[in-house]
């Protein structure tokens, strides 16, 4: 079974229940960015059930969300209908040749990139070059790779590859919080801007 198919199946099975990453609340790092930025057009890759998309619309952003799991896309669309707001929510794989119309002022990734294969990461970066406008911001939340034998998590090599076309503005290293409040996996929030 290919990595891509295995990943799709794993995430689809998680959405038969309530995945732990679906907290129903947007993180303070995203809220801070939205409070201090002019609204524009935003893309949420791995958008899940659309919580962050809805938050962005509250700040005046026009939004597009993409997720690999059909069930999460359906739930996100239902949330948007219930809230009576507009947004495009698409089923697709951000590590494939995913064509999206236009470019974005903000691309948000909360936990998508860190689960991709090395080949998928290369495809994703090529997509990001097309999706993110010059002057735009890429906000990334990812687990950090903790061992050389693991493929999960973001590595310093990944960050160097992003730096070939993006400028790192800030980085916040921490540990992911578990539902009981204790620390979990090492993780990072990063803001990159596309300056040229």
Question: What characteristics describe this protein?
Answer:
7-stranded mixed sheet, 6 helices, 196 residues, alpha/beta
Describe this structure in words.
The chain is of the alpha/beta class and 196 residues long. It is 32% helix and 29% strand. A 7-stranded mixed sheet has the order 3-2-1-4-5-7-6. Strand 4, helix 5 (118-131) and strand 5 (132-143) form a beta-alpha-beta unit. The protein is globular and about 45 Å long. The protein starts with a helix and ends with a strand.
Short description:
It is built from six helices and seven strands. Strand 2, helix 4 and strand 3 form a beta-alpha-beta unit.
Mean pLDDT: 88
What's the helix count? 6
Major sheet strand order = 3-2-1-4-5-7-6
Compressed to H and E, one letter per element, the order equals HHEHEHEEHEHEE
Overall, the morphology is globular
What is the CA–CA distance across the termini? 39 Å
**Total number of strands:** 7
Helical coverage, percent range: 25-40%
Q: What percentage of amino acids are in beta strands? A: 25-35%
Low-confidence parts, pLDDT < 50 over ≥5 residues?
none
Secondary-structure content class: alpha/beta
Rg computed from alpha carbons, rounded to a whole number of angstroms: 16 Å
Strand count, sense and barrel status of the largest sheet are: 7 strands, mixed
Oligomerization status of the protein chains: single chain
Task: Write the SSE topology.
Layout: H1 3-14, H2 28-35, E1 41-45, H3 51-58, E2 62-67, H4 70-83, E3 88-91, E4 104-110, H5 118-131, E5 132-143, H6 156-162, E6 167-177, E7 183-193
Parallel strand pairs: 1-2, 1-4, 2-3, 4-5
Antiparallel strand pairs: 5-7, 6-7
């Amino acid at each position: 079974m290919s990595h891509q198919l295995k990943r799709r199946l794993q995430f689809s099975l998680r959405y038969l229940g309530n995945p732990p990453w679906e907290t129903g609340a947007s993180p303070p790092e995203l809220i801070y960015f939205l409070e201090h930025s002019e609204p524009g057009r935003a893309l949420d890759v791995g958008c899940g059930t659309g919580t962050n998309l809805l938050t962005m619309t509250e700040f005046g952003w026009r939004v597009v969300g993409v997720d690999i799991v059909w069930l999460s896309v359906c739930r996100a669309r239902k949330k948007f209908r219930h809230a009576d707001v507009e947004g495009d929510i698409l089923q697709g794989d951000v590590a494939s040749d995913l064509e999206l119309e236009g470019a974005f002022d903000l691309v948000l990734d909360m936990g998508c990139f860190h689960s991709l294969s090395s080949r998928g990461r290369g495809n994703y970066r090529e997509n990001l070059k097309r999706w993110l406008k010059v002057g735009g911001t890429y906000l990334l939340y990812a687990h950090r790779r903790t061992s050389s034998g693991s493929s999960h998590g973001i590595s310093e090599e990944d960050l160097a590859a992003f730096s070939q076309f993006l400028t790192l503005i800030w980085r916040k290293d921490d540990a992911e919080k578990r539902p009981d409040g204790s620390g979990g996996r090492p993780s990072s929030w990063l803001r990159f801007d596309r300056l040229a």
